[in-house]
Amino acid sequence: MLQIKDFMVNPVLTIGPGKSVLYAAEFMQEKNIGGLPVVEGNQLLGIITSRDIRLNHPNRIVADAMTKKVICCSPLDTTWDVAELMKIHRIERLPVAEKDRIVGIITKKQIIKYISQLNDHLTGLYNSSFIYMLASKILETGNEISVILFDINNFGEINKSYGHVQGDNCLKTIAGILQDRVDNNYDYVCRYGGDEFVIVTSKKIKQAEELANGIIDNIAEETPKTGIPVTVSAGISGGKRKYSRNTVKQKNVIENLINKASLASTKAKTMGFKYLIV
């Protein structure tokens, strides 16, 4: 899970409040950028964007033309936080500020590029990196967190018997069932790797158990219609967890939950159970 400090642009190109709008326009064109933080000393006063330049006479000074109410983010914010911030305020460039001092700049293009890497191209689900980010958001709220890990039974045999193309189709079918069953207000689903899928949810363990049981039954009912009967086993872990701003501690908590669910899934498969809760 990346924080903004990991890939923000630094040092930042800035402009003084006494410069002309014309100077700002020429400087932005030369550097091929869409906005400039307006800084005096170390203090961020505003931002002048290409829109501000279009709306103001070239001879005006930047202090009069700039947008004074600046939306900023913290270097400790996650890419998810900033993507939401940009969406809400419909902006494409965000100054990164720390103690009222500008320390970087982040653009919508950078965010989109990073988030596009979080998709599993076969199933269309998010990949494991994104699920860590979402799990971190649940931890931040202080709510309970539950993890369900689904593991396809005998997937290696499916590939051997039907071929890898049909094996891929099987993965896509299961991904579709998972997407149909989850509630996007509480549940986040990803392809964790290979034949494993993970749901991270803010639901309590009992609700997670009901969700897992329904999905397991649904997969067993629906997949024979595709010509390849499939069953899955699941492991469920969760409960209240302490939130920490420390990203290493966050990751350890999430990894521990996923690892517990994975071991429970393997045990359920070995014992012939649909799922196990740990």
From TrEMBL:
- Carries keyword rRNA processing? no
GO cellular component term, pick one: plasma membrane
| Single GO biological process annotation from the record | negative regulation of bacterial-type flagellum-dependent cell motility
GO-annotated molecular function? diguanylate cyclase activity
Presence of keyword Hydrolase = no
CBS domain spans which residues? 8-65, 66-121
| Alphabetically ordered keywords of this record | CBS domain
UniProt-listed InterPro entries:
CBS_dom, CBS_dom_sf, Diguanylate_Cyclase, GGDEF_dom, Nucleotide_cyclase, Rev_trsase/Diguanyl_cyclase
Domain GGDEF residues, every copy: 143-278
The protein depicted here goes by the name: Inosine-5'-monophosphate dehydrogenase
- UniProt source species: Desulfocucumis palustris
